[in-house]
């Protein structure tokens, strides 16, 4: 998947909430291929940590690390989905009229 589509993250997706406020968000302007590659890396690390947590009974540090990695990767994927999902015709028309 080496082709550049020109599509980039939009940066609307928050994650890691504290008192109903997002502490972090996905940054806009990252090529979606790069964003998906990073999400894949995060998911791989979360998988490995969750696997370790299944065998490590004395601490939850692996589980919490996996939890936060999963939360970050989900936010990246959700942001990419917002970019590649077609918008309803009425919404697209309003946006083009505003420009």
TrEMBL record:
Which InterPro entries does the record associate with it? DUF3077
Pfam family membership, one = DUF3077
Q: What is the name attached to this protein's record?
A: DUF3077 domain-containing protein
Q: What is the lineage of its organism?
A: Bacteria, Pseudomonadati, Pseudomonadota, Gammaproteobacteria, Pseudomonadales
């Amino acid at each position: 998947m080496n082709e550049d589509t020109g599509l980039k993250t939009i940066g609307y997706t928050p994650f890691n909430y504290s008192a109903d406020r997002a502490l972090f968000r996905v940054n806009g302007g990252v090529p979606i291929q790069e964003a998906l590659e990073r999400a894949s890396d995060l998911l791989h690390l979360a998988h490995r940590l969750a696997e370790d947590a299944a065998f490590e009974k004395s601490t939850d540090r692996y589980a919490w690390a996996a939890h936060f990695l999963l939360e970050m990767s989900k936010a990246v994927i959700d942001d990419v989905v917002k970019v590649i999902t077609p918008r309803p015709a009425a919404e697209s028309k309003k946006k083009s009229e505003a420009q």
